TrEMBL record:
GO biological process: exocytosis; protein transport
Function (record text): Component of the exocyst complex.
Protein name as annotated: Exocyst subunit Exo70 family protein
Keyword Iron-sulfur applies: no
Lineage of producing organism: Eukaryota, Viridiplantae, Streptophyta, Embryophyta, Tracheophyta
Chain spans, region Disordered: 113-141
MF term (GO), any: phosphatidylinositol-4,5-bisphosphate binding
Low complexity composition-biased segments: 113-125
Any one GO CC term of the record: exocyst
Length: 598
């Protein structure tokens, strides 16, 4: 910075410098309190900096003079006191200016500052990364844009606002002129012994900017205890949000803060820029990672497995960037915390798998689940799934996939064993159908799980529950429909009616009794899935109703021509259609079917 010529050539530089310093003493001047030097014209700011330089030189000269004439020159001591006072006034003013420049140019990251619209090399984010977070409010739209931008992993652009290293995207947080002013002030404060004040002011203002960015990213100030007290459903959305936000924080926010520290303090020393960086980001970084730490040490349960794996994978992916951003000795604690959380997340996932496997293997219950509904063991499996264990098809599977497959094979084996405790074969098939269908739906509802298990296994599972549904229908309805056959009703050698009315009456009575029993019993059975329940009812109706309508059409006249036909033809086709709607609701129905009006 070129020093103003009038001060350079002044024969009494100290007095001129002192006048400038005192003119801007906010404790003595109303005008100085209301105005900021660096918000006036450029020449005034340069003149003030030169005055500070002159005072610093004078202080150095007076200190040397005082040391060499110790005890001999009282004037030298007075001069030093006078210069010290002037320096203190100047430093107080520079501290205010430093703070004001930082505040003026400190704000939360904006989406526009991260986006390079000219970049054509934008990769497509994965389905899982772009999964909608239902907890985002309308006010968080810019936050959502910011997250999606980072997840697009834009390639290095030509924009001057970036300095890209692998996945790190450094953004210029302040204009270059403000950085130059901050650098000039910092150099003078630090050289005058005001390092601590400089770091404190810098850290205080920049932490506020980071807090504002955190709010935009949806990062809440939650203690480890707060996180562990949350219900799992609430935590799931917060985990999705955290994964998105953590990528932005490490790769953009923290990296850009580090760059800003280097820009401002690069001429002072790396130890100082490291100190300012840690003063700024250590608290926010701990706040960020405390969430993942809380999840890593929370109570284990199977439904948490895949979200824990999501956290683990995200942190594993971020670890090289964390090490790059927090590469100084002073930031060891952040690197260590991240590595320890990663290790605990891996251990938590292994523990959940082991505990679930143990629960599957040791589950001792021999009491059938009422109504053939989903067994608690299957529900406990959370997002786990089930293939048949055919080793020829397991090539290329990850260790985690193999472990899951093994657990689910055991689960199926266990469920097959439990189905044998049902005395009614139809209910046993319904039990298998319910449980395998539940697993299939869990696989379909989890993109990670579906990819891990594979579509081949999913087709096998679908085939298994459909086979169970077919087996149920055979076990229940073959005997019922057998009543509606023609065989055994025709009288041999008779060409009049050709039908044995006694056999026909017995056939109708048998059908009525069997259908009533099935209706009474199976209305109490339960299919929890609405769509599956409706599909099975439709399948039953498609077999039962046409067969009954045809039988009734062929033989109604033979019954109605005799005595008391209502004792034999008790139900209309519509009665049966209505009755089928009672099936699998899980509660008892009236002892008698609702019959047509006579």
């Amino acid at each position: 910075m070129e020093l103003p010529e009038n001060l350079n050539k002044d024969s009494n530089g100290y007095e001129s410098a002192e006048k400038i310093i005192l003119r801007w003493d906010s404790t003595a001047s109303e005008d100085a309190r209301e105005r900021m030097i660096f918000e006036t014209d450029r020449q005034e700011a340069d003149l003030y900096l030169q005055a500070v330089d002159e005072i610093q030189r004078s202080l150095s000269n007076v200190s040397i003079s005082t040391s060499s004439n110790a005890g001999k020159n009282a004037n030298a001591v007075d001069d030093q006191s006078k210069v010290n006072t002037t320096i203190q006034i100047a430093m107080a003013r520079l501290e205010d200016e430093f703070r004001n420049i930082l505040i003026t140019h400190s704000s939360a990251l904006e989406t526009d500052s991260l986006l390079d619209p000219s970049s054509s090399s934008i990769s497509t984010p994965s389905h899982h990364e772009l999964e909608e977070d239902d907890t985002l409010s309308n006010d968080d739209s810019s936050h959502h844009d910011l997250l999606q931008l980072q997840l697009q992993h834009c390639e290095s652009s030509d924009s001057s606002t970036y300095r890209s290293t692998s996945s790190i995207r450094e953004v210029d947080l302040m204009p270059s002129e403000a950085i130059c002013d901050l650098q000039a002030i910092a150099m003078r404060m630090i050289s005058s012994g005001y390092l601590r004040e400089c770091i404190q002011v810098y850290g205080s203002v920049r932490k506020s900017a980071i807090d504002s960015s955190f709010r935009k990213l949806g990062i809440e100030k939650l203690s480890i205890g707060d996180v562990q007290r949350l219900e799992w459903e609430a935590l799931e959305s917060k985990i999705r949000r955290w994964i998105r936000a953590a990528k932005v924080c490490v790769r953009i926010l923290f990296a850009s803060e580090k760059k800003l520290c280097e820009q401002i303090f690069e001429r002072v020393g790396t130890d100082i820029d490291d100190a300012c960086f840690m003063e700024t980001v250590k608290g926010p970084a701990i706040q960020l990672f405390n969430f993942a730490e809380a999840i890593s040490i929370s109570r284990r349960s199977p439904e948490k497995l895949f979200k824990i794996l999501d956290l683990h994978d995200a942190l594993m992916d971020l670890l090289p960037d964390i090490e790059a951003v927090f590469d100084s000795k002073s930031s060891d604690s952040i690197r260590v915390q991240a590595a320890e959380i990663l290790s605990r997340l891996a251990e938590a996932a292994r523990g959940i798998l082991s505990e679930f496997e143990s629960a599957v293997l040791r589950e001792p219950s021999r009491v059938p689940v009422p109504g053939g509904t989903i067994h608690p063991l299957t529900r406990y499996s959370g997002d786990q799934t089930t293939p048949d264990m055919e080793f020829a098809e397991l090539e290329g599977k990850t260790p985690l996939a193999l472990h899951l497959i093994w657990i689910i094979v055991v689960l199926q084996f266990n469920l097959d064993g439990k189905s044998k405790h049902y005395r009614d074969a139809s209910l046993a098939h319904l039990f298998i159908m319910n449980n395998v269908h539940y697993i299939v739906q869990k696989v379909k509802g989890s993109p990670e799980l579906r990819e891990m298990i594979g579509d081949d296994y999913l087709r096998k599972l679908t085939g298994k529950f459909r086979q169970a549904a077919t087996s149920y229908q055979r076990a229940t309805w073959v005997s019922v429909l057998y009543c509606l056959r023609d065989e055994g009703l025709h009288v041999s050698g008779s060409f009049s009616s050709g039908v044995s009315k006694s056999a026909l009456r017995e056939r109708f009575k048998t059908f009525n009794a069997m259908f009533e029993e099935v209706h009474r019993t199976q209305a109490t059975w339960l299919i929890p899935d609405t769509q599956l329940r409706e599909e099975l009812r439709i399948s039953i109706s498609e077999k039962l109703i046409p067969a009954y309508r045809s039988f009734l059409g062929r033989f109604r006249s033979h019954i109605e021509s005799g005595r008391h036909p209502e004792n034999y033809i008790k139900y209309s086709v519509e009665d049966l259609e209505t009755a089928v709607l009672d099936f699998f609701e899980g509660y008892p129905v009236s002892q008698h079917l609702r019959k047509r009006s006579q």
